[in-house]
Task: structure prediction
Amino acid sequence: MSLIKHLHHASLVASDLTASRAFYEGVLELSVNPTRPILPYDGVWYDIGDSMIHLLVVPNPDAGVVRPDHGGIDRHTAMMVNDFDELIARLEKAGIPYSLSKSGRKALFCRDPDGNALEFMG
Result:
């Protein structure tokens, strides 16, 4: 039995919480977890099954770093989706570029408003 039970959350840096919320809540339709603890910086928690994404509005430690075009060769947060084609339609409607997995799997990569790489698998 592994010492680790499950992934609780992944934290991503956000510079513009309004733009980030439009992406995560509007395009991806994630639900806000209202029990976010009081912290000395702004942010939001999103429920994803038994896990969460935590957006932190803090100075970006990677500011000025050039990220790879394809999110699959960058650090990224990976999520399973219920409807892969619907996700593609939402990204295209919102004008968000994405690239398909180079492995041929049913997966795509895109970036949020702050350039955080996200992987979605169908």
